[in-house]
Automatic annotation (TrEMBL):
Family: Belongs to the 3-oxoacid CoA-transferase subunit B family.
Domain of life, source organism: Bacteria
Keyword Transferase in record: yes
MF term (GO), any: CoA-transferase activity
Gene3D superfamilies tied to this protein: Glutaconate Coenzyme A-transferase
Official protein name in the record: CoA transferase subunit B
One Pfam entry name: CoA_trans
Key word Transferase present: yes
InterPro entries: 3-oxoacid_CoA-transf_B (IPR012791), CoA_trans_fam_I (IPR004165), CoA_transf_AS (IPR004164), NagB/RpiA_transferase-like (IPR037171)
Keywords annotated in UniProt: Transferase
Ranges in a coiled coil: none
Amino acid sequence: MLDRNQIAQRIAQEVQDGWYVNLGIGIPTLIANYVPEDISVEFQSENGILGMGPFPFEGEEDADLINAGKQTITARPGAAIFDSATSFAMIRGQHINLTVLGAMEVAQNGDIANWKIPGKLVKGMGGAMDLVASAENIIVAMMHTNRKGDSKILEQCTLPLTGVGCVKKVVTNMAVLEVLGDGFRLLERAPGVSVEDIRNATAARLVVDGEVPEITF
């Protein structure tokens, strides 16, 4: 199966030249490390920066330069730093070409639940509600199952929703899935993971069209 960095590396293949991309906390923040050098991409963080670069090397961190997850980051030449009002005007104005979020559950109609942690006190869904309401292209980076082995790819979400019918694609540690509205199409599978393994780990309807290639980097 893929690890967190490999999930991010696979999603980086979806990024196109000239795009503005918002990266959520968790696995999505790793994507900036894997974008090909021959394309130009501007990464945006909702706390108010456009032009994020890869994570800094140890010893080169700047505590005043952080992403939405409070991790230290680097800024590319020409990066802009601004207030949250400007950041969310950019998001709500649909100036972001791609949003990548983590999730606890994704449903086959594109619903996403990514803020309510069962049994834990949380402050709310934060800026994710604006991102999923405004973005037209949303990819989710997540693990296919929870720690108990239960599927997080569902017919219907069981946790409170962050957004409705908004997710286009999901990349997990097992597979790349396209949201169809009434199921998921299996596009790619992790090296060494069979279609049957993915089917057994998926609680939603899974559509398999012919031979499914392995994920390559």
